[in-house]
Amino acid sequence: MKALKKILIFSIFSLIANNITLAQTNPRLIEITGTDNMKFDVSSIEAKPGETLKIVLTTVSRIPKQAMAHNIVFLEMGTDVKAFANASAKARDNQYIAKDLKDKVIAFTSLAGGGETVEVIFTVPETLGEYEYICSFPGHYYGGMKGILIIN
Q: Does residue 33 fall inside a structural domain?
């Protein structure tokens, strides 16, 4: 009977430990859509410090990719977002991410044209606060394509 009890207790602890490991290795999925109106359909994301997120961005558009593509760029807290957007709008050869401001980027997706889906998996910062995310395609940030990642 004691042996059975020990096996049962060991099994319970093993299951709990396994579930904790799975929770830590499986990123939380967040699906976002960008459209021709230059808005993300998700304007805020809440996460825990150090949480792993999988962002899946889909662009819905009939306009050619050269004229209407979207990405999502998560920026470090305190970044001058307007300066980043302005500099990145000139960085066509680098997925519209300004090379000299790359240190301000936490994570980003590549560009997605109409009907395309892109993704990025990343670990959010440990520091509590609000981090902005934008589409860095020229003009899209100023059109309202932005949101807030809230770490709490």
A: yes
